[in-house]
Design goal:
By secondary structure, this protein is an alpha/beta fold. The chain has helices at about 40-45, 75-90, 150-165, 180-185, 200-205, 205-220, 240-255, 275-285, 295-305, 315-320, 325-330, 355-360, and strands at about 10, 15, 20, 50-60, 95-100, 120, 130, 135-140, 145, 170-175, 225-230, 260-265, 290, 310-315. It starts with 8 loop residues before the first strand and ends with a helix. The structure holds P-hydroxybenzoic acid (PHB).
């Protein structure tokens, strides 16, 4: 069976015009109140021909922050900024989900209210350094959350889900990946708890399940998605048995009838892949979104083989606002500027040319 990447797909009750999804990408260009502004509106609007945009990860509370300049989705000012983004994307006929984020141990006291120590399932310091306003600083040993503190974190997700609705998003993706708080609970390299949030797979999934329950109080489940990273080592993460453990987690998601499950396959940094993602894909009854270094050829092959229903593309959308058109007509792609990925101004953000501009310059 062949599934054209340019063919429409129905995601819950939303009809996407194609299967190419703009992957969530941190760009660190929100304002000093972590609110989106006009530059961010232009960036997302330019990319609205993606079947679906997933926003950059956006913290659910001031305590959830882990980097400078990342947007939040908890204050009225942030909602007002995001409202302009969603209006602009919708005006172009696009669809946009916001990714809900809580960084946990991948943060630093300099970034947190009252210089508090970052929290985590267990007091295990990640390797490496946090990005602060004063430059890179070594991660600190996080404080293990008390069992009775977890309900408040879940409440922060519920609040953010409500704010996302006010901001006009089409849905939310719960970020349970890449070594941030929920992933720190899922994987056993970072979760050594002995209460009901650690130990068994059921316990390690409890936080994700409670967050999903809270978000689904606000949104219909078909407007809620989850992102997972079974074997990404980014942010000092590891798991003793990614295939078996994530087969369990993904199977458990089935009854929820979510919009989709989004899986970053393999390692984000090295791109190495050590488990069979077809097994994970086959654990899931609904739409499966694949991600990690896909290009046009790999995306089309994966869709044709039934290895996925949607493909999330990061860098290609970052550097080609009109990626759908370029793939459709086999047009050359813009060169990527890695130096302007994180932070800065319009350069490397909203000034990547559209194909017609490239053509106009060359005639
Ligand atoms: C990053 O800022 O490097 C980053 C943020 C969110 C992710 C992955 C990486 O999910």
């Amino acid at each position: 069976m062949s599934t054209d990447m340019f063919s429409p797909v129905t995601l819950g009750d939303i009809k996407l015009s194609n299967r190419m999804v703009m992957a969530p990408m941190t760009r660190n260009r929100a304002d000093e109140h972590h609110a989106p502004h006009d530059l961010n509106v232009t960036y997302y609007q330019q990319r609205a021909t993606a079947g679906l945009i997933i926003t950059e990860a956006s913290q659910v509370s001031p305590e959830g922050v882990g980097y400078p300049g990342t947007p939040g989705i908890y204050s009225d000012e942030q909602v007002a900024g995001w409202q302009k983004v969603t209006n602009a994307v919708h005006a172009e006929g696009g669809h946009i989900f916001i990714q809900l984020w809580y960084c946990g141990r991948i943060s630093h006291p300099d970034l947190l209210p009252d210089k508090q120590i970052p929290v985590a399932p267990s007091a295990i310091k990640p390797e490496g350094e946090a990005v602060t306003l004063e430059g890179m600083k070594a991660f600190v040993t996080p404080r293990a959350l008390e069992t009775n503190e977890i309900a408040d974190i879940v409440a922060q997700y519920r609040h953010a889900a409500k704010m996302a609705k006010k901001a006009g998003f089409d849905g939310v993706e719960v970020h349970a990946a890449n070594g941030y708080l929920i992933d720190q609970f899922l994987r056993d390299g970072s979760n050594k708890r002995t209460d009901e949030y650690g130990g068994s797979l059921e316990n390690r999934m409890r936080l994700l399940n409670e967050v999903l329950d809270a978000v689904i109080e606000v949104w219909p489940s078909h407007r809620v998605a989850v992102r997972l990273t079974p074997e990404n080592s980014f942010n000092s993460m590891s798991d003793s048995n990614p295939l078996e453990n994530f087969s369990y987690f993904i199977t458990q998601l089935n009854p929820r009838k979510l919009a989709y499950v989004h899986v970053l396959e393999g390692d984000m940094m090295t791109k190495s892949v050590n488990i069979d993602y077809r097994v994970l894909r086959d654990c899931y009854d609904g739409l499966y979104m694949a991600n990690n270094g896909y290009d046009k050829a790999r995306a089309q092959t994966a869709l044709n083989n039934g290895n996925c229903d949607l493909v999330a593309l990061g860098v290609p959308f970052l550097s080609n606002p009109d990626l759908v058109k370029r793939y459709q007509h086999d047009l050359p792609l813009n060169e990527v500027d890695f130096a302007t990925f994180y932070g800065g101004d319009e350069h490397g953000y909203v000034d990547y040319p559209f194909a017609e501009e490239v053509n106009a310059e060359s005639v």
